[in-house]
Amino acid sequence: MEVDKGKGEAEETRKVAEADRDTVTLKSSDGKLFEVSKEAAARLSTVLAGMIAGGSIDDNGTDLKQIGSEALENVVDYCNKHANSIPSAALISSSISFNTAPFKEPEEWERKFVDRLSHDALFDLVEAANFLGMERLLDVTCHKISEMMKGKSPDQIREVFNIKNDYTKEELEEIRQELAWAFYDD
Amino acid sequence: MNTTIFSRKLKRKQSSRADHGGAEGRSVKEEGSDLIIRLPDCIIFSPKRKRRKGGRADRGGAEGYSAANQGSDLISRLPDCILGVIVSLLDTEEGARTAILSRRLRHIWRSAPLNLDDRLPTSYVDSRRVKAISQILAAHPGPARRLAFRSLHTPSSLSCYDDWFSLPMFDGLQELVLHFPLAEHPKMPGSSLRFASLRVLDIRNFTFPDSGCVPSFPCLRNFCPSAR
């Protein structure tokens, strides 16, 4: 949902955003502009909610220097899809902190949303969700990553995520003994 | 936003961030953005990642990634609090086994809230299961977020519940799943009524204990009684 790259169009976007206060314009680290429903942004992101409440939203595009355009596009896409597909009651229960709330399984559309992402895009989205305080999106992306680990041996997990085994043999043995109960099937 | 865990992590991050992040470990704070106070705590010390496109060769220089590693290790770059969430979504044993992946991941399982699920091999008899659960409780310092017991069924195993439930690591328990595999409906241990912060209670084939008072779970959002 990239709004625009050109200056003239940016001006147009700004005017539209000013006239219609239902949306906010976000600017990625590489300068691309994206428009998202103000209501959805405030509901799904604690950081954007704080900025909207505090009046620090820039009509010309609020700078999000930590987030690249691909990740921001996914964030905006998620907000729009979320706004369209979840009844309001479910949103109230999902507004509690993801660290303390019971984990709620991703909806079908959320699974599809993360399944289509490349490895890199998934991790960029985790970081963007973390940066923006988007608890539900963090749940969904973390769930996807945990699914990628499930049922795999340590070697297989290292391969999937390119994790370098930087332990010595002795250290590996020490951990295996410490956590012997977890390695029953080896 | 509840940032309890973030704050706890922050302390650890402050003392340990020199260990990882290396050359790329600039904090967001140094960017001078006025957005900083709005950030969740854990992101404040999250290493800023270079864009992969065009920057691949630079990645992780200070962290000593070997050249043999063709792709990027994206997971190890996530902040501890996110890694903790990922690991606690795995089964208990699988979560604990992540410690063996690399030094970066060694302490994640222990530092994330415990999700204890007794989905152990079905060949386990109760006594072996109880031993394994005791070892898990000894290996993890707490706190525990979720407890799920579905397979213990001998009277001597059930007597362990009271001992376990009384542990301080369960003071802030959020979810309790208590299933009895047979239709005998024993009484739930009295100590299971102490979890005031419980949000999810899922009981099957158990009856509430006779405590003389009505059980009270002020935070309960999801109650799933089944088969009685």
From TrEMBL, chain A:
Keywords: Ubl conjugation pathway
Region (Disordered): 1-21
Function text: Involved in ubiquitination and subsequent proteasomal degradation of target proteins. Together with CUL1, RBX1 and a F-box protein, it forms a SCF E3 ubiquitin ligase complex. The functional specificity of this complex depends on the type of F-box protein. In the SCF complex, it serves as an adapter that links the F-box protein to CUL1.
Pathway assigned in UniProt: Protein modification; protein ubiquitination
Domain SKP1 component POZ intervals: 23-84
Name listed for the protein in its UniProt record: SKP1-like protein
Domain SKP1 component dimerisation residues, every copy: 136-182
Upper classification of the organism: Eukaryota, Viridiplantae, Streptophyta, Embryophyta, Tracheophyta
Listed InterPro entries: SKP1, SKP1-like, SKP1-like_dim_sf, SKP1/BTB/POZ_sf, Skp1_comp_dimer, Skp1_comp_POZ
Similarity comment: family membership: Belongs to the SKP1 family.
Entries under PANTHER family matching the protein: SKP1
BP GO terms, sorted: jasmonic acid mediated signaling pathway; protein ubiquitination; ubiquitin-dependent protein catabolic process
Assembly with partners or alone: Part of a SCF (SKP1-cullin-F-box) protein ligase complex.
Residues annotated as transmembrane: none
Automatic annotation (TrEMBL), chain B:
Residue ranges occupied by any F-box/LRR-repeat protein 15/At3g58940/PEG3-like LRR domain in the UniProt entry: 162-222
Biased composition (Basic and acidic residues): 16-29
Residues making up the signal peptide according to the UniProt record: none
Region (Disordered), start-end ranges: 1-29
Domain named F-box: residues: 75-115
Pfam families: F-box, LRR_At5g56370
InterPro entries with a match to the protein in the record: F-box-like_dom_sf (IPR036047), F-box_dom (IPR001810), F-box_dom-containing (IPR055302), LRR_FXL15/At3g58940/PEG3-like (IPR055411)
Protein name: F-box domain-containing protein
Organism: Digitaria exilis
